Amino acid sequence: MKKYSFLLFDADNTLLDFDENERTSLTSTFKAFGIPCDEDTIRLYHGINLMYWKMLSEKKISKEELLIKRFATLFERIGVDADPVATENHYRTLLGKGCQVVPGALEVCRKLRNDYRLYVITNGVASTQHSRLEGSGVAALMDGIFISDEIGYDKPDVRFFEHVQKSIPGFEKDKALVIGDSLFSDIRGGVDFGLDTCYLNVYNEKNTSEIKPTYEIQDIVELLKLL
Question: Percent of the chain scored above 70 by pLDDT?
Answer without folding.
Answer: 100
